[in-house]
Amino acid sequence: MECRRAGLKFPYWIILDEHNLVDLDKTYDFESTKPFGIVSPAFLTEIARIIKQAAATGRLSGVKRS
Fold it and tell me: What is the distance, to the nearest Å, from the Cα of residue 55 to the centroid of all Cα atoms in its chain?
């Protein structure tokens, strides 16, 4: 169901072990910022729980993207 809401084709993967470290004054985007889908609040809550758990156990790392 979340695939359809987010506009993704099944199967898909969400990897929750890293996050981007971005200098906001140096960011740019060649793509449109128009949203292409949504997810339910319950799904977002579950994602947030998993990210918080990964951070607490040291399994979450920042990756510098430039």
Answer: 14
